[in-house]
Fold this sequence. Notes:
Layout: E1 2-5, E2 11-14, E3 19-22, H1 27-30, E4 39-41, E5 58-60, E6 64-68, E7 71-76, E8 84-89, E9 92-97, H2 106-111, E10 117-121, H3 126-139, E11 143-147, H4 156-161, E12 173-174, E13 186-187
Parallel strand pairs: 3-4, 4-5, 9-10, 10-11, 11-13
Antiparallel strand pairs: 1-2, 1-12, 2-3, 6-7, 7-8, 8-9
Amino acid sequence: xxxxxxxxxxxxxxxxxxxLVIDPQxxxxxxxxxxxxxxxxxSSDSKSVKIPAKSSSFIINMPGEYDTKxxxxxxxxxxxxxxxxxxxxxxxxxxxxxDIKKELTDEQLEMISDVDVLxxxxxxxxxxNEITAKxxxxxxxxxxxxxxxxxxxxxxxxxxxxxxxxxxPQNKLSIKKKDLPQEETEIVILNAVK
Length: 194
């Protein structure tokens, strides 16, 4: 599995069969890598999202369970005002958490359990950083990929909270089930790839 961050809360996930894009803004303008995506996940009902018309593209924008192109997708709508997606592929469980405003309840935590990779919106201020760090500690994923912040600004507070202030940004995260960290949560900073 390969994960790219495209800025904001937009990420793309590639498995051996297809590419899935979560929360694209304007694919025709911004996301050259995602133009060929077969699956699109939208966490909110944004009218501004422009998705190229491809007859083979599968678009998911509501809670439910979906199985397509080697991806098992579970959309959860009971947690925040947007749909949270759990994507499973190649034995890896990824959670896209676009809107973190408060710590999770036990019931919510049960819905988001056994996460290998957490794509977490860390926001652009210290308050959102602190809440996100608490939620990450609740979920206990193996890998965290921060998103939802301005890449021009260093998210120093968040990185310090998570003990990852020396991490160098990468262009992509290539991961196999057998390579997942076993002991501690690893923070992987990705460059915004257009």
